[in-house]
Design a protein that fits this description.
The chain folds into two domains: 2-71, no CATH class; 98-139, no CATH class. The protein has 148 residues and is an alpha+beta fold. Strands 1-3-2-4 form a four-stranded mixed sheet. A three-stranded antiparallel sheet has the order 5-6-7, covered by helices on one side. A hairpin with a 2-residue loop joins strand 6 and strand 7. The protein is 28% helix and 26% strand. The protein has helices at 29-42, 46-56, 98-114; strands spanning 2-4, 14-20, 23-28, 68-71, 117-122, 126-131, 134-139. It starts with a strand and ends in a 9-residue tail after the last strand.
Length: 148
């Protein structure tokens, strides 16, 4: 059986789970914040702060030697198994942008007119050329329209 502390406040996510005398108590984030605050304020260990919390709320008797065990949250842990068969890597089709191609072709003509040599056009994304003995590359990027 699982006991929820502050059932009216349990809408938030659970932060810690403890087992005391075979009973499981699930604490929410507010309870855990109180435990951390007590730990810092009184300069005590986490175990002592948890014991103090449960004693304050009378879930255990003060001074009793009850074992408080922290249980890892099994709901949040995910285990992934590796498959024996290889994945089928499907080649992605690249969309050809005619506008970018036309702009770079016009840039190529312009660069050749300015005296550039060895002009090469790589698809419709970049233009490489030599100008006055130096090597240059122009990359053209099309930006997405802004959302309003």
């Amino acid at each position: 059986m699982v006991y929820y502390i502050y059932q009216e406040k349990m809408e938030g996510d659970l932060a810690m789970t403890y087992k005391i005398d075979g009973k499981i108590y699930e604490l929410n984030s507010e309870d855990c914040a109180e435990i951390r605050k007590n730990k810092k304020e009184f300069g005590i260990s986490e175990e002592d702060a948890v014991r103090m919390f449960f004693e304050d709320w009378e879930y255990i008797e003060s001074g009793s030697k009850v074992k408080i065990e922290k249980i890892p949250d099994l709901k949040q842990k995910k285990e992934y198994a590796k498959s024996e068969k290889p994945r089928n890597a499907k080649p992605k089709e690249r969309k050809v942008d005619a506008t970018k191609g036309r702009i770079l072709k016009d840039c190529k003509v312009l660069m050749e007119g300015l005296g550039a040599t060895e002009t090469t056009l790589k698809t419709e994304t970049e233009l490489s050329f030599m100008f006055e003995g130096e090597s240059y590359t122009l990359k053209l990027t099309k930006h997405r329209p802004k959302k309003n």
